[in-house]
Design goal:
Helix content: 25-40%
Number of strands: 11
Number of helices: 8
CATH class of the largest domain: Alpha Beta
Strand content: 25-35%
Largest sheet: 5 strands, mixed
Distance between the termini: 37 Å
Shape: globular
Order of helices and strands: EEEHEHEHEHEEHHEEEHH
Number of domains: 2
CATH architecture of the largest domain: 2-Layer Sandwich
CATH superfamily of the largest domain: Porphobilinogen deaminase, C-terminal domain
Structural class: alpha+beta
Radius of gyration: 18 Å
């Protein structure tokens, strides 16, 4: 009757007959820096890591931003579930790894977080930190039953982010990031598109009414496209 997903993993175009009935209140959308114990006391944050420090990630989005803003670091591919990634860190294969704050917290590893990286330094994935409940689009009974779980501000924020991603024609495997914040009736959306090398990174922001979330996402995508985002994305897809 229903499926629960991390919203960041759901495509912006759902299969025919399916719908997102609920987006629950968002947890922390930020990325987390997790440091190896021997490193923590000497280099406590991303900005203090020295040249050549080995940082693990499997995300094209994180990789591109790290290469752009921290070209002195050595970025190394990181695979496996969260437990496996933490074991690799503790075994000394990495000096630091980057994971989602929400994912670490849900699995009971919040104590491992060394730094919650502000969106100004690393923009999160579209929908990061939010859970979505997917149902059959014509199942009114289940929709009405779940309706009290829907969180309006989170839905508006994620609607803007997903509209941007959809307008750009991208997915979670491309270096595209977006993060929206809703305060009262107002919404601010930041978005970026980057080259995997980090050499080129295009970032823009837009403000408007939360009730116009989808339009704001599309408008911000237009601004990114005007600055060359389509060329970056086309090169990645090819």
């Amino acid at each position: 009757d229903l499926a629960v997903h991390s919203l960041k993993d759901l495509p912006t175009q759902l299969p025919a007959g399916l719908a997102i009935a609920v987006i629950t209140e968002r947890e922390d959308a930020r990325d987390a820096l997790v440091l190896r114990e021997a490193v923590t006391s000497v280099f406590p944050s991303l900005d203090t890591l020295p040249a050549g420090a080995v940082v693990g990630t499997s995300s094209p989005r994180r990789l591109a931003q790290l290469k752009h803003f921290h070209p002195h670091l050595r970025i190394k591919e990181l695979r496996g579930n969260v437990d496996t990634r933490l074991r690799k860190l503790d075994a000394g294969e990495y000096d630091a790894i980057i994971l989602a704050v929400a994912g670490l917290s849900r699995l009971g590893f919040a104590h491992r977080i060394s730094e919650r990286i502000q969106p100004g330094k690393m923009l999160p994935a579209v929908g990061q930190g939010a859970l979505a409940i997917e149902i059959r689009a014509d199942d009114a009974g289940v929709h009405d039953f779940l309706a009290p779980l829907d969180h309006g501000p989170t839905r508006a924020a994620c609607t803007a982010e997903r509209a941007l991603l959809r307008a750009l024609g991208g997915g979670c495997q491309l270096p595209i990031a977006a993060h929206a914040v809703v305060r009262e009736e107002h919404l601010k959306l930041d978005g970026l598109v980057a080259a995997p090398s980090g050499e080129t990174l295009i970032r823009e922001a837009i403000k408007g009414k939360a009730s116009e979330a989808a339009q704001l996402g599309e408008a911000l995508a237009g601004r990114l496209i005007e600055r060359g985002a389509n060329s970056l994305i086309a090169g990645l897809i090819i």
